[in-house]
Design a protein that fits this description.
333 residues; six-stranded antiparallel β-sheet; 33% helix
């Protein structure tokens, strides 16, 4: 099911209409709340954090700039940013170029070593990330403890290779990674879990739109019974803000399975399943788009006025606004 979110703010520039933050005046966060008590510093941090976490894809910097102007307090803003940016970056699975230019690293919970270090399994490196600036500030080789066994790595790298081919073919700007998330020390015949993630984004503020695609595929491999089970979640968010503000936020879950074969054969089967389900989801989105004007947008408007009667457009002259106003304002003489 596609969820469409609309608001009434508008924009006359190419930057996103994020000045809804400023509906609270610069002094509003220093005023009293409804109970007559001053807004505490903790409450201000929570409010700022909420706005930052709910920023549309690729627009947290715009929100941060507005939030900083509203707060007029660098310390409070910094506290909110330090809490919000890491969570936002992982939720959005942002892609950052590594400082040694050896490739991209995805900031995800699956590759998180600690709060600022993230594993790139393809290059076997760990990147140090500045969350607020959204840049990589250092790279180091991954330790043996951070990498899977040779047996698990054979399957992980095979899936990664096939997935990369699919992403390059299906997405204009997309990145992917395959992590060993459980049982990384397993040997032949053992059970373990891989997690494949795809993150694709297109930011085009000059055309009044930004959007992202995120998909997470849990791959459960049971070597003793030669089965592979997949559980996928796809999530799409799009934000359009030309003379208005419309957001689309939709997701889809699915399951599938295949048999365990050699690393290359298993990887091919897994990625074919991913391609099939993601193509079906994309087709359903396109079908929903074609029906928006006939269904979704009509549902956003009241079908009947409060009086529960239709307006007589064919005989509108029977209603005289002047006559009604005169009657209401007339005085008995």
């Amino acid at each position: 099911e596609v969820q469409v979110l609309m608001s009434v703010c508008s924009s006359s520039s190419h930057s996103p209409p994020l000045h809804f933050v400023c509906m609270a005046s610069h002094s509003s966060l220093d005023q009293q709340d409804g109970d007559g008590e001053d807004v505490s510093e903790q409450q201000k941090v929570a409010i700022a954090k909420w706005f930052l976490l709910n920023s549309p894809p690729g627009e947290i910097e715009y929100v941060a700039k507005d939030m900083k102007a509203v707060l007029m307090d660098e310390e409070i803003f910094q506290k909110a940013a330090e809490e919000a940016f890491p969570h936002y970056n992982k939720e959005q699975m942002i892609s950052i170029e590594m400082s040694d230019r050896s490739g991209q690293v995805l900031v995800t919970q699956f590759g998180e070593v600690d709060g600022v270090h993230y594993l790139d399994p393809r290059t076997a490196q760990v990147a140090t990330v500045d969350h607020i600036k959204q840049v990589c500030i250092g790279v180091r080789p991954a330790s043996d403890e951070e990498l899977p066994s040779a047996y698990v790595e054979d399957y992980r790298s095979a899936v990664d290779t096939e997935l990369l081919r699919y992403v390059e073919d299906a997405f204009t700007r997309g990145d992917c990674a395959v992590y060993s998330t459980h049982g990384k020390d397993a040997e032949e015949g053992g059970a373990y879990e891989l997690t494949a993630v795809i993150s694709a984004a297109k930011f085009s503020p000059q055309n009044f739109c930004n959007g992202c695609w995120r998909s997470i595929w849990k791959i459960y491999i049971e070597g003793d019974i030669h089965t592979v089970k997949l559980k996928g979640q796809m999530h799409v968010v799009a934000h359009y803000f030309e003379e208005g503000n419309v957001q689309l936020d939709t997701s889809h879950d699915c399951k599938d399975s295949t048999i365990l074969q050699s690393p290359s054969e298993t990887a091919s089967a897994i990625v074919n399943i991913i391609r099939h389900h993601e193509s079906d989801f994309l087709a359903s989105l396109e079908d929903s788009y074609s029906k928006l004007s006939d269904s979704t947008f009509k549902e956003l408007r009241r079908k009947l006025p409060v009086t529960r009667t239709l307006f007589p457009w064919s005989n509108a002259h029977q209603l005289s606004l002047t006559r009604e106003i005169t009657r209401e304002l007339s005085f008995d003489k």
